[in-house]
Amino acid sequence: MGQTLCICSRGSITIDNKRYYFIQKLDEGGFSYVDLVEGVQDGRFYALKRILCHDREGRQEAQTEVEMHRLFSHPNILGLAGHTFIERGGKSEAWILLPYVQKGSLWSVLEKLRDKGSFMPERRILKVLQGICSGLKAMHDRGYAHRDLKPTNVLLEEDDRPLLMDLGSMNRSRMEVKGTREAMTVQDWAAQRCTISYRAPELFNVESHCVIDDRTDIWSLGCVLYSMMFLEGPYDMVFQKGDSVALAVQNPVTIPQPCRSLTPTLSQLPSLSPTGQSVPWLVNS
């Protein structure tokens, strides 16, 4: 692992012995920042994700995110360009260098369509959906689940090729819960790491003896498909109104009328998702 030196007066950084110029800030979260940087040698743009690690557990979580990026080399999973950990002012920061996708997230595309009073054509929906499924299948085949699939965690290349990103919530796809204490641990973890309006029902009230597996991603996938069809997730308004998403997910979703078709795809999902077979079916459709 290369050593990061510092942010210099000229606004440059060094990661893995390669220099990058700071261009501008892109995003800011609770414990992380994303900056746009340019490689001095190759002239390419990258997204530099800086994660503040407040303790040993935070550092380990950042290390896990790095390892998840390293684990996959797939056209529908965002790759890793470089990384390092630095110590500044007695605190640790994880710096993760990722390819920059100018078009932005699937959510930003949906917002633009909504602002224009337009919709995403069904052929385009299916193309994006198939790419997301392909990325998920690669994760599931390796025994991992994404756990936080949502439109803001899907980037779109210029040709609409989707890239799954933000792998910080990924873990082994099969989690066997034994006892009330383990159930509460999983439930608390899900509350912190799995976005509420895309979270599977079994993660709201985790049973004391159960198995959580990659079908949580299938639920989230359905919510993402819904958002592409109707430009908002099925539980986004429930959350925004302050109503209980945990209660809402227990009831069938009401499909807005008139409904844009995609009927063949949607009619297959309910029968397939309980068995965990939706992803390979959709990839091969």
UniProtKB/TrEMBL annotation:
Matches recorded under Gene3D superfamilies: Phosphorylase Kinase, domain 1, Transferase(Phosphotransferase) domain 1
Record flagged with keyword ATP-binding: yes
Superkingdom of the source species: Eukaryota
Keyword annotations: ATP-binding, Kinase, Nucleotide-binding, Serine/threonine-protein kinase, Transferase
Protein kinase domain sequence ranges: 20-285
Reactions the enzyme catalyzes: L-seryl-[protein] + ATP = O-phospho-L-seryl-[protein] + ADP + H(+); L-threonyl-[protein] + ATP = O-phospho-L-threonyl-[protein] + ADP + H(+)
CDD domains xref list: STKc_16 (cd13986)
SMART domains assigned: S_TKc
InterPro entries associated with the record: Kinase-like_dom_sf, Prot_kinase_dom, Ser/Thr-specific_kinases, Ser/Thr_kinase_AS
Record's keyword annotation contains Kinase: yes
Record protein name field: non-specific serine/threonine protein kinase
One MF annotation (Gene Ontology) recorded for this entry: ATP binding
GO cellular component terms given for this protein: Golgi apparatus
PROSITE patterns: PROTEIN_KINASE_DOM, PROTEIN_KINASE_ST
UniProt-listed Enzyme Commission number(s): 2.7.11.1
